Amino acid sequence: MSNIKEQESGVIGKLRNRLKGVDLRQNAIFLALLTLIAYFAVTTPNHASLTPDNWSNLVVQNGYILVLAIGMVMIIIAGHIDLSVGSVAAFIGAVSGILAVRPLEQNGWDWLPASPWFVAILGAIIIGALVGMWQGFWVAYVGIPAFIVTLAGMLLFRGLALMTLQNSNIGPFPDAFRAIGNGFVDKENTLGKDFGIESHNLVALIITAVGILALLWSSFATRRGRIKYSQSVEPRTWFFVKNALLAVMIGFVGNKLSQSSGIPWTLVLLIFLIVIYTVIMKQTTFGRHIYAIGGNLHAAVLSGINVRRVNFWLFVNMGMLSALSGILITARMNSAVPKAGDGFELDAISSVFIGGASVQGGVGTVTGSIVGGMIQGVLGNGMNLNSVGIDFQMTIKGLVLLFAVAFDVWSKRRTK
């Protein structure tokens, strides 16, 4: 019996050594996403999940949730929660509608001069920042828990959205405004036609190739840096396998998009935000302070971190990203609707936790939250294509969230 235990411990020990340096949590959700894609590729009628138009719709339809997830993961890492993002998105969508198309038509807003579409967007984001300042003030300087402040904000800004729109819809919007949510880079494939390539969008293929090269360069540069400073790195085999899978996945999605209308402007905006916020969280003092506050608030205070200021700017940032999400959904729907953004807060929070963030704070990544959001998007899209009822869809999504958090709790207990 003791020999069996020694053999098991030896096998487990060898496995642990082989997996040393591997982020099991982040890699598990990536493999879960690939598994879901493969499963629905086989099970959907006529392989509908693999069609170029379906992938194009999948990216555009989930863009506004993924934007919220970027801000939400920062909030959750710091140990807070924001329940108001859906209502703020609806309110800012209403504001953008008033600024862009309705001031001369709707009663009560005739005092406001008409503005170009880009001024409407800028104005809406500024108001989103003011909303974030309002909530950040109560959380950071008054000391009210973020759960209560944003719960109040969920009601407050939903009411303001109804008041702003006078319980009606606003639209349609100018083509340039709509392009943010529905437009594509070189949709007519002008560059491809110039080179005699009409079956694929050439700009989409070029962007995909550049994205793959940038990913590989970043991965190898990061690995070299960690080795240089004697930090732990992933096993060589897994490192190459993981990057090969990532490159294949990006190439697959890019190829599908190139066969449809091309790269959506929503995706371009999303990639830009992912890069910027990944740099902020990994390479700036502000990002390190967020992790420190969520990891151990008392230690963060003792180390001299201005916790109030960090929390305040976190909610300002969340307000701006909520505004951007509201603009995206308004542009996609070509209408500002009072009920827009309903349930967005739950989708954003679920994306963060499925993406590997810890319920206690201090753990999480921007890329993980994006993968978590895509898992939700692929899951919902696949179930719709398989004609799964909304009751079963909600049940399955609830179980996925529960198991994701349970895995986080279990993994933490294993490390203690």
From TrEMBL:
Gene Ontology MF term list: transmembrane transporter activity
Compartments in which it is found: Cell membrane
Name this polypeptide is given: Unannotated protein
One GO CC annotation: plasma membrane
TM spans (from-to): 24-42, 62-78, 85-102, 114-131, 138-157, 199-217, 238-257, 263-280, 312-331, 392-410
Its membrane topology: Multi-pass membrane protein
Major subcellular site: membrane
One Pfam family linked to the record: BPD_transp_2
Organism (species): freshwater metagenome
UniProt-listed InterPro entries: ABC_transp_permease
Keywords annotated in UniProt: Cell inner membrane, Cell membrane, Membrane, Sugar transport, Transmembrane, Transmembrane helix, Transport
